[in-house]
Amino acid sequence: MTHDELIMALENILGQQRVLHREHQLLAYECDGYVAQKARPRAVVFPETTDEVASIVKLLHEHKIPFLPRGAGTGLSGGATALNGEVIISLVKMDKFLSVDYENMRAVVQPGHINLQLTRKIAPQNWYYAPDPSSQSACTIGGNLAENAGGSHCLKYGVTTNHIVAAEVVLPTGEIVNVGSPFGDALGYDVLGLIVGSEGTMGIATAITVRILQKPEAVKTIMAMYDNVSDASDTVSDVIAAGIIPAAMEMMDQLAMQAVDKSNYHVGYPTDIDAVLLIEVDGLRAGVEESAELIVEICRKHNVRSVQVAGSDAERSLWWSSRKMAFGAMGRISPDYIVQDGVIPRTRLTEVLTRISEISRESGLRIANVFHAGDGNLHPLICYDSRVPGETERAVAAGSAILKVCADVGGSITGEHGVGVEKIEEMRFVFSDADLSAQIQIRSVFNPLDLCNSGKLIPKPGRCAEVRQAKRIIEQHAEIFDGFQEQTMIASPGK
Amino acid sequence: MTHDELIMALENILGQQRVLHREHQLLAYECDGYVAQKARPRAVVFPETTDEVASIVKLLHEHKIPFLPRGAGTGLSGGATALNGEVIISLVKMDKFLSVDYENMRAVVQPGHINLQLTRKIAPQNWYYAPDPSSQSACTIGGNLAENAGGSHCLKYGVTTNHIVAAEVVLPTGEIVNVGSPFGDALGYDVLGLIVGSEGTMGIATAITVRILQKPEAVKTIMAMYDNVSDASDTVSDVIAAGIIPAAMEMMDQLAMQAVDKSNYHVGYPTDIDAVLLIEVDGLRAGVEESAELIVEICRKHNVRSVQVAGSDAERSLWWSSRKMAFGAMGRISPDYIVQDGVIPRTRLTEVLTRISEISRESGLRIANVFHAGDGNLHPLICYDSRVPGETERAVAAGSAILKVCADVGGSITGEHGVGVEKIEEMRFVFSDADLSAQIQIRSVFNPLDLCNSGKLIPKPGRCAEVRQAKRIIEQHAEIFDGFQEQTMIASPGK
């Protein structure tokens, strides 16, 4: 099938208006929120129904043409980058809110429905959808499903996989299947659990049933500032040890605060503090009051310089905006930056932060830290200038080195941003060739020809060239990678 | 390999003491808690280390001899029945508590470790393990993993899959792999999620890392008695609608209460009430007080006959014992009984209970109901007498008919007991042949020769003989199955 025949066949299904294929039209689709690697898709199509998605996928499968699904393009790991000149299937026109069942706590949306819109739609009845990525005003529920997105409030409520109970999915062969169970837990093997977080490699969700929650009766937000990170970090541990599970427990370091204060969010952080904690508790009024008092006490025990409870919704909202916009605010202090996303056991926080500041020194690059402290999910922000020769490479190597530290202390190389193209080689820090082969076998049950978002999430096992390249990067940046313990990440609990 | 050669090879690995193969020794292993179908294993072996498990599995795999893992044998769906004369690999000698890390909220145990022992071990430090099946004083964490076990307190805390974060697993080929991640969510495809609940068809967990929780500061337990089930059921809906998520919300009907009162638990239920609710809230003291008051108010709004809050730990403990022993208590009112396990949307409760009482009338068998009302997980207890010709078959057909009702209202055919051999044909109420083929393909990634617990969980797709047999059962018991709507269970949300 020639390129022109393909375009015509796609237009036959969708009409000319919903098939983009001219060069200037494709420019905007060369990358998502991960801008370090770009690639031109051969076309971008905009289906509006499940049957249209299935028809397109069948056509592409039949002619062995690679394709990938795309939501709002806010992803941070390059999951929607058309590495193989894919046809991009954009789900933004499938953005409907389909139904809601308050009594059974369920809502059904199309994949292009925007995360925050879902909460807005049910807010008048006092309900909400819990997972709240920083990009929630733009990102889609379909994209959240693909990336198993997290968010500040996932400490108490869990990430996306805990909130999606069923989905209609167009498999990479074009077959339409329904997975999961709107009520009751998974039956048979947990196929829905396998598809959530599969980064678009196992098909395209076309209708998604989510769990919705009632808004808590009361919320209290506490901001605590510290002269040093280890006091803040001890506070986090002690809050958990006290048996409180806050809805959120976020930390930012000095450099991140500077960036935020230079942007439009004038929280007015003192310039000389080392760390700020944002802790939120929610639930019934009486319990929330008790928790907030206890948390303030714990902060005081750990040498907090100042601690306050938000006095109004406006104040609470300003504090949260400053946190949620922290990534974007980095643009105020650095021409370019990479957002990393590693997970560590909470108890290793101080040690890992020390290692990150060493990596910053060794690489000569500033690194800010913004993180979901409660569950040990770090977001180091590596500042660099792509106009300076070699600096991009050093930034990438520093990011990789940080992920190696996370893996070495028993953590993970992604908390919520996905692997995509960005971290695909770092999967080898964690998985053996045998593990990767098993993952590829699982994928091939659904995606036998590897046409659907090929080259993402799971690296090919034992490709010597790639392993050699990874080794070369480590050697070239020996000073950054130096001194790592050679541990395996997946604990061997029984041995 | 002859039988004698096999026994010798097993004894070479484990020694004579840990290989049972004489007929009288095997009798106790002909079934688990599901007694309606029995089968003799060819041997039962007791490994003590991961390497021993791996050696045994390698030997069996090499000689294509079927095998299956077994925990305490408390399962209710026949998951540990040696349908194919399997070698049973008992994990009861691998019962160690390996380690605990309070700061990071993790403990590691061997698969044979008993559920309640885990909580007892960490209770002095004020921690516990949340999933609490009724059999928790006997059942093992490995068995809980295989069946994705639930329990009364899973309403608030989630079932086993939400509490297991990593595992060392001997695959059906004998390979030892580590899956999951002790910290952070699943990376790559969620293989651990696939193995949890796979009923022993994907390998044998030999070390299990679980999430542990701090004991709540306060607990309040409320018992409410009703003249009719629909008032009790409206109470359940209203409690959830009020934004309270109780730790547990359990219901028993009149027949179940009679059984309990005839056993050793003299709660003293009035003989003329229709339903009793047991509701428990936990958390910080202030929040718990507030919730308990609100719940009592809601009970009153729904014509409760009497409602009381447990005044002491002893009273609370009596109430819980009476609930947890309800299954066993059935023996007081019926020579035999089948415990069924279906899930329905909570809002369909009254309608489904009406249908169950019709099935009871049509089959001529008494059916008691004990259920996790909060999450719509029903446990109909079907009373029968196996000495009366035809009664066993009628009881099995009635159970199947109830599951069909659950499937037809959009629910599931198992909440927490698993599919095993008991419900394997009922999987067809829910899954198409295409769905079953996909599930078998997933299994074959791990269990290519289907040697490991063959014939459980996933029925073979489109085996005409079996489909014919299912149809014959439905025809023979037309009165019981009559009047079902022909709906598919898995909702088609987008269509």
From TrEMBL, chains A, B:
Keywords: FAD, Flavoprotein, Oxidoreductase. Pfam families: FAD-oxidase_C, FAD_binding_4. Residues 37-215 form the FAD-binding PCMH-type domain. The keyword Flavoprotein applies. The keyword Protein transport does not apply. It comes from the Bacteria. InterPro entries: FAD-bd_oxidored_4_C, FAD-bd_PCMH, FAD-bd_PCMH-like_sf, FAD-bd_PCMH_sub1, FAD-bd_PCMH_sub2, FAD-linked_Oxase-like_C, FAD-linked_OxidoTrans_Type4, Oxid_FAD_bind_N. This is FAD-binding protein. It comes from Alicyclobacillus dauci. The lineage of its organism: Bacteria, Bacillati, Bacillota, Bacilli, Bacillales.
